[in-house]
Amino acid sequence: MNFLFEFVISSLIVLGGIFVLVGSIGLIKLPDLMTRLHAPTKATTLGLGGALGASMLYFLWGEGTLSIHEVLISVFLFLTAPVTAHFIAKAHLHLNRDTIRQELSPTGRDHGWSTFDTVPKEAAEAGKAIDQPRG
Amino acid sequence: MIEYALVFGFFAVSLALLLNLWRLVAGPTLMDRVLAVDTMVINVIALVILFGIQYTTTTYFEAALLLAMFGFISTVAYCRFVMRGDIIE
Lengths: 135, 89
Fold this sequence. Notes:
The complex is a heterodimer. Chain A is built from six helices and no strands. In chain A, 76% of the residues lie in helices and 0% in strands. In chain B, α1 (2-26) runs antiparallel to α2 and α2 packs antiparallel against α3. In chain B, 84% of the residues lie in helices and 0% in strands. By secondary structure, chain B is mainly α. The interface between A and B is large, with 50 and 49 residues.
């Protein structure tokens, strides 16, 4: 039983370290920001999840109490990582909107990409109709 | 066995921090640097958790939670500042 706990904790720590390292190697190796965004926000978060699971098992094994702090930290991180990635991607799109808009393929519809162009006319009117008080 | 795993974990996370520092210094665009700092905060949380395992103390969890919140808030604030020119409108 002791060996099993030690083995699981050790492998979780090693897996966490490997995933954190892979995330940072991806941050160095990948060619531009939109691809670079993948490595830290996914691999690093998963690696941190491994370290937190190891810590939780370790204190469950050593003290016999299930500590809830790690669950709190991992839930917070797993919730905030996609939000952070979304904000960074959107700020990047807005900072370089002139060059990125030329690279984008046409949408094939009568209005453009939603981050760069204004709201299409009929959708704006539909939104206005929803906003207006009834009766 | 856990001691050796912890040595490996410290080594990996420290190497990851150095690579992030490289991206922070080299990063061609502004958002690359923001992303590097965000990743550095997450790696520091991992380091704090591993310290907690090594010294068998639960004191560091509050520090890790505070770092997680602080990293998220600072990244979002910076991105909002870049996008809107203001943080709280």
